[in-house]
Amino acid sequence: MALSPSDRELLHEEKLRAVGQLVGGIAHDFNNLLLLITFCSDQLLAQIPAGDASRKTVSSISDAVGRASILTRQLLAFSQRQVMDLKVIDLNKVLLRAEQMYCRLINPDVQLKLNLARDQVAVKIDVDQFETVLLNLVMNAQDAMRNGGQLTIETGNEESTDAVNDDTLSPNTNRRVVLRVTDTGCGMSEEVKSRMFEPYFTTKPPEKGTGLGLAVAHGIVCQMNGAIRVDSNIGMGTTIEIRFPAANMADSSFSPEVSNGDDARGVETILLVEDENELRQFLKTNLETHGYCVLDARHGPAAIAVAIRFGKKIDLLLTDVELPEMSGYAVAEALRADDPDMPTIFMSGYGGPDAVCESSSNKDVFLLKPFRITQLLQKVNEVLRRRGAPGLQRSEVATIAADSR
Ligand code: ADP
Ligand code: MG
Fold it and tell me: What percent of the chain has pLDDT over 90?
């Protein structure tokens, strides 16, 4: 039976979703292993004296883990399971900052032009993730303009009209922000256009292309409630358009003070929930070395039992998100029945499509696996100190909670 073009498109979408699910699952399990390798090699490094030849070997392990975690992060992005740190920001500012970097990065035959909207273009995005998307688009444009050309990055505010009606965009608002990246390069055939968002699809030689750039960009943009589309013809250049729902600059959140993990020493009580035994032991030992009192549990019900037995105030909940029995979110919710202000750090290598929505308060912080112990200590210190600053959070929490639905 012949499939109609729309059936074929649907099948294609289904296929991509299935691949995304598989890839996301593998990347998640992999992250746990990488985290363990990172901890072990960091611990070894701390024990090997400076000048010892084996330091180099252990450093190579750390470097390889670093590269592997970039790959798992890309796979999670493609499968739309990144942990997102969404903030309201003026997109123009992000672009002006990126421009300086691109000027150094792209080849001198390519002229970069920024065509920014006069007004603010407020969007709610994860800036780091967005920069990844932009970099991928800029690199693609440069690859398409081997003999030079013009690269234009444009922003604008627009009201939704039939012409730009896009079903894939969240329909909460009809005000949108549009970003256009246009090149005067070689353009794409119909075949390439139909496959460009597939992971590992590339028309470049192996040492040049991974085929992950646009798959990752697509995943990230969709997870940030945006839509991405392409307009391209062979020999006529390419325009990639990304649309986000417009946000309100008034909702722009404050940025907490950042401390450096090294001076983080605490006396507070932390409840640690992690099902991977070895990992839990590592985290516990390290936190204890830094002065914290650590209660630990293997899963949610055990954590609740420990908290009841402890009977005193727990200063911080540090929990894995993916746990047997009940999720990290459910553990936090249960414990907050007694202490609604309990700060929580969620450790996850696998944000899940609801990661952002489920975290309904800015007391919640996500730590993406794999992380380094210094990053964990920094976060713990930051969250505890934020709790210590009186009078600030309540109203902020309310705004952000209402906003992140
Ligand atoms: P990669 O750049 O590693 O090949 P991408 O996912 O970024 O992977 O892109 C996939 C393919 O889409 C590219 O190999 C190229 O054929 C095509 N493509 C992407 N962007 C452009 C562009 N701006 N102009 C022409 N072709 C493009
Ligand atoms: Mg690319």
Answer: 34
- The boundaries of the domain holding residue 214 are 84-251
- Specify if 383 maps to a domain: yes
Q: Ligand 2 center to residue 145 CA distance, Å?
A: 13
Choose the residue to mutate in 137, 142, 182, 202 for probing ligand 1, maximizing ligand atoms within 8 Å of C-beta: 202
pLDDT at res. 143: 94
How remote is the CA of residue 96 from the centroid of ligand 1, in Å?
Answer: 24
Q: Please give the residue that has the higher pLDDT: either 363 or 80.
A: 80
Structural contact between residues 370 and 65, judged by C-beta atoms closer than 8 angstroms = yes
- Say yes or no: CB of residue 138 within 6 Å of ligand 1: no
216 with 125, same domain? Answer: yes
- How many CA atoms are closer than 13 Å to the CA of 236, on its beta-carbon side? 9
| Number of domains making up the chain | 3
Q: Please report whether residue 256 resides in a domain.
A: no
By the 10 Å C-beta count (0-12 exposed, 13-18 middle, 19+ buried), 295 is classed as: middle
How is residue 9 written in tokens?
């498109």
Side-chain half-sphere CA neighbours of 141 within 13 A = 31
Q: Are residues 63 and 198 in the same domain?
A: no
Ligand 1 contact, 183 CB (< 6 A): yes
Higher pLDDT, residue 258 or 31: 31
Same domain flag for 242 and 272: no
Q: Is 192 in the pocket of ligand 1 (CB under 6 A)?
A: yes
> Which protein residues have their CB within 5 A of the ion that is ligand 2?
140, 213
Q: Is any atom of ligand 1 closer than 6 Å to the C-beta of 201? A: yes
Q: What is the pTM of this model?
A: 0.61
Per-residue pLDDT at 296 exceeds 60: yes
Span 266-292, pLDDT tens digits:
678 999 999 888 788 889 888 988 889
Q: How do residues 26-61 score in pLDDT, each as one tens digit?
A: 888 888 889 889 888 888 988 999 889 898 899 889
**217, 251, 285: which is the final residue of a domain?**
251
Enumerate helices (H) and strands (E) in the chain, giving the number of each: 12, 12
Q: Do 375 and 274 belong to one domain?
A: yes
